[in-house]
Known about the structure:
The chain is mainly alpha-helical and about 210 residues long.
Amino acid sequence: MRYLWVLxxxxxxxxxxxxxxxxxxxxxxxxxxxxxxERVENAQQSQQEAQQQFKSALEQFxxxxxxxxxxxxxxxxxxxxxxxxxxxxxxxxxERINSIETVADALFDxxxxxLELYTNDSLKRDSATKLATTKRQYNSLLKxxxxxxxxxxxxxxxxQDNTLFLKHNLNASAIGTLKSEFNSIQNDINKLIxxxxxxxxxxxxxxxxxxx
Length: 212
């Protein structure tokens, strides 16, 4: 319970900061809907970058298992560098999705509250219907994005395990052991690429809807 009393003030501060940010943006003509569009597009970009980074890591791993003499330490360092870059890309994807949730919640709360300001029942019904449709599309998109986000974890775990194994066994026999892992890593990365392509396509459709 004592942790709750610490977290609650922090949540209130963050909420107040977000509200102040949205208010400031509205004063210059940028509304929550605009911010949501921008953040969805940013998430698209981070997913595309993550795809490329995981492809690069797979290429490095392919080069590693073809190792036939030379500086194995450098091969390990290159492999580890690719893994670290993948980890950073995954964090960025998660942060972008979280930022979408924040502004979407604020937008839908505001939209719901403003329904009570209507005096024209017909316009109110139309707006309520559009709100329900937009929320349904958003929830579907968020689910797809989270699924794509989760698809990165198996690939990250495999890359980490193999990088650590190489670190602890810097010899030619280690390369032979890692060869058996390539197909598994390739399958994990291909799956995450497919999931992200689905999320990117759906987010494009959602943005088009918001811009109508």
